[in-house]
Amino acid sequence: MLEGSILNDLRVAHQSGAIGKRPLNFGVYYKNTLVSLCHALEDCILSCSSAPLVITAFQRGKWYLQEADRYSEIADRADQIVIMASSDTGFQDHPTSQRSNVALVELDQADPVAQEWHLMILAPSYTAMVLCQELSAEDYGAQGIPTEDLERKFYGFWTFEAGLVEETINFAIEHIDQYNPDLAKHLRSKVAEIKAHPSEQDEIYQAVSMVVSYLQTEQAELRTRSKHEALDNNLTSNELQAFLRLAQLIDQTDISNPNAAAEVASLSEAMAQLLDLPAWQLNRLRLSALLHRLAFLKTSDSVLSPGSFGRIADHQTEAPCCPIVPGAQILRNMGRLNAIATIVTHQSEQWNGQGQPAGLAGDEIPLESRILGLLAEFQQRVTQHRSSNPETALSIALSECQAEAGDRWDSKLVEALTLLVSAMQQGLSLPIQVPKIAAGMWLLDSHSDEALLDLSAKVTEQV
Q1: I want to staple 266 with a disulfide (CB 3.0 to 4.6 A). Which of 338, 414, 430, 453 is the partner?
Q2: Do 294 and 407 lie in a common domain?
């Protein structure tokens, strides 16, 4: 990364050992993927309920000019827009640049930010960011710089995390201060104003859906033009990243259980190995575990509401008729996640048929849903007991699950859980690894989009 760039400033702030900061996982993105991501997030501004602060870096003014008309429409909804780019003919003259809430920062040609492509959006109800830096000729190596514009590559990452977005905007303001101290002062007041009037981040759900839709549209258009596997895979990877980032936000907002997804994923992998499940089923179960809390997002206005992610039992009486479980339905926007959506949807079924959302019983419930439901509840109970009984939390949670074997849970799976807990008590360590979201393709396989026992069709007929 270029010294003095905004991306490098953020990387340094989060390098290993930094107090209170976690290392960030960066990825490589093709230009067509970034265009889709930025257009989706920009369109969210048009429907956002609150006027955001928007800071962008376009590399060169000519790239801004291609989007200038679009930014005029965005300026109608934004509180303030700042555009950083090195100057090109007409950069300052376009009508959008004359808007009272649009400020241009003309970068020096040697400024490392002139090699970066950024979009930062900060509003009380919606935050998002795409932060990238173009690869250098040396980075491309022997293959050289691409001749096709859409094949240009950028290194960086994107996120919905409010804390990261605010932190990066502050780095951007410090950089702007070198060119326009008055503008920097004005922007600091805007950030302070937004922080002083916080609201629930209740528009992320819509943003995720829009990101997936834009990526899929680009994917369809790409396939009509050419068969470029690398570009196609990059788009698919970012569709999955959108869901994983939403799941990550859910965990981060649950102070009482912030590692739920990672811990359930680790338990699921161990259980799958204990049951000798094939590799494809293990992978499918692991991805379902990482996304399992999406099932309890009932409406868009409860996506990141504190307390919305409690025990599975808390939601059973209110779950809608299958297959319309809103949080799981969003996964069906990506065809490659059909099986995952079904697994997540039916994790709250019960062995005795008294669960939700479809009242399935026994072996009617997909195996992965049975495993996921049991382990998600077990993890939740361990977390609850750990605060008051750390030494016996595993035993207490296990005994509670054992008491429900044959009724709520599949007895054979409870037996397997008993063996797993026994191994853990004897020293088995289950690694809790937060997935590297920027490299999510490995989580998908050929079984991720298949129907599970035609279950969705069967249940649809019953509704």
Answers
A1: 430
A2: yes
